[in-house]
Amino acid sequence: MTKNMMREANAFPKCTLFVTCLFALSACVSTSSLDRTGEAKKAAKSSLPSTPSAWATVQQNPGDVKVGWIASFDDEVLSGLVYEAQSNNLDLKLAASNVDSARALSRQAASALSPQVNLQSGSSRSGTREATGSSNQSIGLQAGWELDLWGRIRSGNQAAAQSVIAAEADYKFAQYSIAANVAQAYFAAIEAAQQLDIAQRSIDTLLETNRIVKVQYENGIGDKQNVALAEADLASAQDGLASSKGARRDAIRSLELLLGRYPEAELKVSKNLPGLPEAPPAGLPSDLLERRPDLIAAERRIAAAYNKVDQAKAARLPSVSLSGSLGGSSNSLGSLLDPGNVAWQAATSLLAPLFDGGLTKAQVDASTADQQAAIASYTKAALSAFGEVETSLDQNVVLRQRVKALTDTLNAAEEALRIANIQFKEGEIALIDVLSIQQRVFSARRNLISIKRAMLSQHVNLNLALGGSWK
């Protein structure tokens, strides 16, 4: 074997060694970290006003925030509907798709850290009119890799990884929100059914009043005005009944849409509102920042923004790339990979930006602006979260006071109506006085049901604001 043939025969191990070195260097570089989590946490914390050590609103149940607040209602129908929504809700499916997309983009960003190896093959034929001509076959491997000296690729990879965490946190909070929305729609549907029942009872009462008034008028012990008043109140109650029926159908449709069902207003719900669970522990304001998934997502986006600034700055620096190829070329397939027909090549290239019209500088400025926007978004979300908790805690006190007041109102109105009916039958008061008291009773009943439903919704809002898991 000639020296030339021996050198060609050694092409295989040399190129193999070159490609192996590329992968080894890639592994070494990829293990370096440009994590900006610490800077993101510091920037997020410094953007907020001083956080108190306890909630401003009085909270009677201190302690760690609990999970499983849906089960605390002890309503199997509600629990089943929430699980159904977790499987079928379209907003959740969209959030899940966003997570899948973020993960794919992260893998895409990470792929740039590895050498790219491609297989290339080709065939050509040449000749003239007089000659048959010749053919040539070729096959080879091409490898290339950019040395990430300044961390441009790694910063982009880190940004993508932080975006994945943010998308996953968004999905988790979407699950919490869907559970809360289903619970509130469920309570609203029950309330609508109970309001419908009150409207029907109101009509039944007014029908009886109308009958008595007409009998009195026909017997000459009543007047036409009483008949007109009774008929007017009956017509008004019938209008309220129609409105209540429509409200109930609307509430059922809203719940069906959350469940991913067709909105046909046919879903069956419980007849009575569930009992109000004990107020949950509220934890500490500082813990909220580490617990609520939407705030975690906002903080991760700050970290991603820091990495994108690093990426933009590194793009202004020179880049170094390695490339290599190994392949054979022959006019016959049989000798294509003979050592004498195989050639290899290795090269290094340096690319240093000199003038780009301000492109890379503008990219740094844009990334810096996005970083400031991410911090502002976090601050807004955190303050909003604090406000939601404080408002919910305050509403817990207010609504309990209102329930007591409305319960007393209803009891007093019902007693007044009982006395008024006796006085009316004895001719001591006019019908208009009785009708007025009846309206007070029906109004008090409607208001009390609304407040009880509001208390349940407030309990849901408080758990959601605290970032407690629904299961």
Polypeptide structure, described:
The chain has 471 residues and is an alpha+beta fold. The protein folds into two domains: 1-31 and 117-147 and 319-352, Outer membrane efflux proteins (OEP) (Single Sheet); 34-113 and 149-317 and 359-466, Outer membrane efflux proteins (OEP). The chain is built from eleven helices and four strands; from the N terminus they run αααααββααααββαα. The chain has helices at 3-9, 11-30, 37-46, 76-88, 90-111, 152-218, 224-258, 285-291, 293-314, 359-425, 431-466; strands at residues 116-126, 134-147, 319-330, 342-351. Strands 1-2-3-4 form a four-stranded antiparallel sheet, covered by helices on one side. Helix 6 packs antiparallel against helix 9 (293-314), helix 6 (152-218) packs antiparallel against helix 11 (431-466) and helix 9 runs antiparallel to helix 10 (359-425). The model is unreliable at 1-19 and 26-32 (pLDDT under 50).
Q: Return the CATH topology of the largest domain.
A: Outer membrane efflux proteins (OEP)
Helix percentage range: 55-70%
> Based on CA inertia axes, which overall geometry fits?
elongated
Q: How many distinct beta strands?
A: 4
**Relative strand content:** 5-15%
* Count of helix runs: 11
* Average pLDDT over all residues: 84
Q: What CATH architecture label of the largest domain applies?
A: Up-down Bundle
CATH class of the largest domain: Mainly Alpha
Low-confidence stretches: 1-19, 26-32
